[in-house]
Amino acid sequence: MATRSNSSSSILVIILLIFTFPIWFGVGAALFGVIAGLFGAIIGIIGAIFGVLIAAITLPFRLVFGWHDWDFGFDWSPITWIVLLIIAALLVRRSNK
């Protein structure tokens, strides 16, 4: 009698596994997706930090040399205006003496 109970319980376990396999497969796939998403988020955060650092390094050069203009037309960069203002201030100062 003990072997019959053991075999019927193992058949019950096998049937239970067969019917619940899609659920376990879905749970495993969901966990894999969450883990892959977390790794993707970490890589995205690292990329964003790298982009912010590069932007902070290039900001003074963009402001001084006018790297913000991508058109092909003629453009006065901010350094040109700064140099012209310094020259004008020196000329005004020299003429006042």
Fold and architecture overview:
- The chain is mainly α and 97 residues long.
- It has one domain.
- It has two helices and no strands.
- The longest helix has 64 residues, at 2-65.
- The radius of gyration is 36 Å and the shape is rod-shaped.
- It starts with a helix and ends with a helix.
- The mean pLDDT is 84.
Question: Any idea what the shape is?
Answer: rod-shaped
Strand content: under 5%
Order of H and E elements: HH
The main pleated sheet reads as: none
Features:
97 residues; 0% strand; single chain; 2 helices; mainly alpha
How does the SSE layout of this entry go?
Layout lengths: L1 H64 L12 H19 L1
Short description:
The chain is mainly α and 97 residues long. It is built from 2 helices and no strands.
